[in-house]
Design a protein that fits this description.
Belongs to the long-chain O-acyltransferase family. This protein has 468 residues and is of the alpha+beta class. Helix content is 37%, strand content 23%.
């Protein structure tokens, strides 16, 4: 019997439309080695690694009459060249041209009749660099059965890419009759499944409230959150189909120095830098701020299985990402007080005993941030967008160089999806001494996303120069 999508995975398909494609992306930039590194090598590398990701060769098959949730079936017409595409910028291509292309690629939905992922190998970047842009649907990456493609393409040591010989044989697709019979059989055994499927498709309020309660750890907390929705503001408008993408490059050493000076964690400093930037951005738009004003961020964070003592891959990347709400104090003019407010707000999560320190995440194999950002997007997508203003994901990565074949990765930027009424999403990854921000904004509502990106740098400088 084919694998059936979970209720959460199916909901990502049901709520998707042209304005809100439900995929998570990443932009990895590589230095081309002297021996060269081109499309054929990247194609072979990805082809080799797909053996570890069987879901990437499967597509979604709907059930006639929606008697049950869709199932995963092998794509008998799977074409690796369709999924790994070649593109180029006019040489010498600039970073601005690359990120403009990223915005256009991320605004397009993945083809529902094919496996739900794409990768673009982009040549022509100045400085003899190439880029790999990935798009993976949120229904694909569950963190346990399937991780993100970016996590297994990268290795800690360079190695020549061997020629790829595809010997994969797809299983025969089930017939419509078989799909219906399987669905009827499951409904007879578990009649509540049919009701749950209808709820997922409708995204009704009861189902949403239940997911809030589960994510936030209790009915009382959930009810308070629902009664008091996120503050209104320019970030919460119905998004268009267009996107703008901007990046920020910072150094991990700066965050560590600020943490040493003022306390808290590196993640607190990241959120404080974002808070200061949002404050200046709101003021630049003519918004009036009082000292009590906040912007509510959903901050998905990795958590450790309470029964697992080791920082193992299954323990950290087995759907163990908690959706944590943090009110960012944008009304507070003092940068140090902003940091302290955030540190206090995050204390409850740290005191739960389930939070995962950066040193634990670094023990996960491959480039784990790719998977953890995907899991963060899943956590956000499972909740009502009315209870938070934006999503901010932050995942520490390895502090040693990573390679695709013999090409060294020099930068990595997450691209987080937008929800229907949220015009900005921020992903942050640290890697080899750098901290890299990816800002995905709606083209109409946040057309000045590059301005906001510059304000993050200014906010970080303000924290570096602050004395208390």
């Amino acid at each position: 019997m084919p694998d059936r999508l979970s209720a959460l995975d199916a909901s990502f398909l049901y709520v998707e439309d042209h304005a809100t494609p439900m995929h998570v992306g990443g932009v990895a930039i590589f230095e081309r080695p002297r021996t060269g590194f081109g499309y054929e090598q990247m194609l072979a590398l990805i082809g080799q690694r797909l053996a570890f990701l069987p879901r990437y060769r499967q597509r979604v098959q709907e059930i006639p009459g929606r008697l049950a949730r869709p199932v995963w079936v092998d794509d008998v017409d799977f074409d690796l060249n369709y999924h790994v595409r070649r593109s180029a910028l006019p040489q010498p291509g600039s970073d601005e041209q690359l990120f403009d292309l990223v915005a256009r690629l991320m605004s397009r939905r993945l083809a529902p009749e094919r496996p739900l992922w794409e990768a673009y190998f982009i040549e022509g970047l100045g400085g003899d660099r190439v880029a790999l842009v990935t798009k993976t649907h949120q229904s694909v990456v569950d963190g346990l059965g399937t991780i993100e493609l970016g996590q297994i393409v990268l290795d800690p040591t360079p190695a020549e890419v061997e020629p790829f010989d595809d010997t994969w044989t797809p299983r025969r697709e089930p017939s419509r009759t078989q799909l219906v019979m399987d669905a009827v059989s499951e409904t007879v055994q578990r009649p509540t499944e049919l009701v749950e499927n209808v709820r997922s498709a409708a995204n009704d309020a009861v189902a949403t409230a239940g997911k809030v309660a589960e994510a936030l750890g209790g009915v009382a907390t959930a009810l308070r959150t629902v009664v008091h929705p996120a503050p209104a503001g320019p970030l919460n408008v119905r998004v268009s189909g267009g996107r703008m993408f901007a990046v920020v490059r910072t150094r991990l050493e700066d965050f560590r120095k600020i943490r040493a000076e003022h306390g808290g964690t590196v993640n607190d400093v990241v959120l404080a830098a974002v808070t200061g930037a949002l404050r200046e951005w709101l003021l630049s738009r003519g918004e009036t701020l009082t000292p009590q004003d906040t912007v509510r961020a959903l901050v998905p964070m990795a958590v450790r299985d309470a029964e697992t003592a080791e920082y193992s891959t299954p323990a950290l990347v087995g759907n163990q990402v908690a959706a944590y709400l943090v009110d960012l104090p944008v009304g507070e003019p003092n940068p140090v007080l902003r940091l302290q407010h955030i540190g206090h707000a995050m204390t409850d999560h740290l005191d739960s005993g389930r939070s995962v320190a950066a040193r634990g995440l670094l023990k996960v194999g491959g480039f784990a941030p790719a998977t953890l950002h995907s899991l963060g997007a899943r956590a956000a997508g499972s909740l009502s967008g009315r209870i938070f203003n934006l999503m901010v994901t932050n995942s520490p990565g390895p502090q040693v160089p990573m390679y695709a074949g013999e090409a060294r990765m020099v930068e990595m930027f997450p691209v987080m999806p937008l929800l229907r009424n949220q015009a900005l999403a921020i992903g942050v990854s640290s890697y080899h001494g750098g901290v890299y921000f990816g800002l995905n904004g709606d083209r109409k509502a946040v057309s000045d996303v590059e301005v906001l990106a510059g304000m993050i740098e200014e906010s970080l400088e303000e924290l570096k120069g602050a004395h208390w």
